[in-house]
Amino acid sequence: MITETKQQLDRKSFHAVLEQHGLRLERQTPKILQLNTGRLCNLTCIHCHVNAGPKRKEIITRETIDRILDWLRPTDIDVVDLTGGTPEMVPDFRYLVESIRAMGKRVMVRCNLTILNEPGYTWVADFHAAHGVEIVASMPCYSPDNVNAQRGEGVFDSSISALQTLNQLGYGTDPALQLDLVYNPNGAKLPPPQAELEADYKRELKEHFDIVFNRLYAITNMPVARFTSYLKRNGHYADYLQLLRDSFNPGSVEGLMCRDTISVDWLGNVFDCDFNQQMAMHVGDGHQALALWDLDLDDWLRRPIRTGEHCFSCTAGQGSSCGGAVS
Questions:
Q1: What is the DSSP letter of 39?
Q2: Are 132 and 176 in contact (CB under 8 A)?
Q3: Does residue 105 lie within any of the structural domains?
Q4: 326 belongs to a structural domain
């Protein structure tokens, strides 16, 4: 009997590792439409897989928004998850949110918190509260040194101020105003257990800043775009990829976001997830973009999910999705 060496196993594709464990990555009826509104952002975080920043020009247009809304309206998809960049910086952001809420669908916004304090965006907090927007806010740590190292000097204080503003509006206490935080490790390591970290966050933020929130999402850093450059500059790229492979958790596959989420970019093109989107890995054979308004949901369920080396990030340790740990 011939057994595979560790080196041979390390070369296996993500798909091959799934097969090795007797697993299949198949779609479910989509529950979430995740729309990346563009790469414009007021921050340049080192872990950003979008390469977002203040000088980026890629943003969604009103025409694209209207075509997406027309497709979305008759579907049973209940949640629209707006990400970026900074979604609130898109000129038609308020129109987009108001139109989705008018359909009776939920809206989640991936908010970097600091935008609430930027000149010209002081309307953001009140707008979110008035429209019942669910906020998923990036907060890499409850201590200033870690946050500022990952996201920029002064970001921690601005984030704390924004959270206090949201609490004053009822976020974190009013059942209609959900406030969730996102933890990303500062460097080439996996997140600690999510439940334990959530307890630490709640204790520290309440004790020191009188801040409350609902849930914490612990998300593994994806070796894509800016974070890949960071890893290579520091000589950690190969070791990090190996860590992700070595930490493969078969129990995480059931909860992967690509199974029940449709990812759409600012041009309206469809992808299996936001990470495939940033790598230009289009659905299907990957050679031709497919616009959301040309997508048939029955056909979507039959399409295979495209995978790659980066997929080991979502299955490492406790697993990771846009909703945090999955196992």
A1: S
A2: yes
A3: yes
A4: no
Please report, for the domain that includes residue 36, its CATH number. 3.20.20.70
Output the six-digit token pair for 43: 């921050």
Strand partners, 316: 248
Residue 55 has pLDDT above 80, yes or no: no
Within 8 A by CB and 6+ apart from 152, the residues are: 43, 44, 45
Task: Point out the least confidently predicted range of 49-58, 249-258, 266-275, 292-301.
Answer: 49-58
d(CA 56, CA 48): 13
User: Hunting for tokens 């970290």 — which residue is that?
Assistant: 197
**Which secondary-structure segment (H or E) carries 230?**
helix 226-233
| DSSP annotation string for 90-158 | STTHHHHHHHHHHTT-EEEEEE-SGGGGSTT-TTHHHHHHHTTPEEEEE---SSHHHHHHHH-TTHHHH
CA gap 195, 216 in Å, rounded? 8
Domain region containing 107? 6-313
**Closest C-alpha to 44, from 94, 86, 89:** 86
**Which range in 97-111, 137-151, 216-230 is most confidently predicted, on average pLDDT?**
97-111
What one-character-per-residue DSSP string does 154-168 give?
Answer: THHHHHHHHHHHHHH
Q: What is the pLDDT of residue 22?
A: 96
Lowest-confidence pick of 32-46, 64-78, 136-150, 161-175: 136-150
Strands of the sheet containing 261-264, edge to edge, are 215-218, 179-183, 134-138, 106-111, 79-83, 32-36, 261-264, 270-271
Task: Please choose, from the candidates 97, 45, 10, 81, the residue with its C-alpha nearest in 3D space to the C-alpha of residue 226.
Answer: 45
Report the 10 Å Cβ neighbour count for 77: 21
Domain count, the chain: 1
Instruction: Note whether residue 111 is domain-resident.
Output: yes
Domain membership of residue 94 (yes or no) is yes
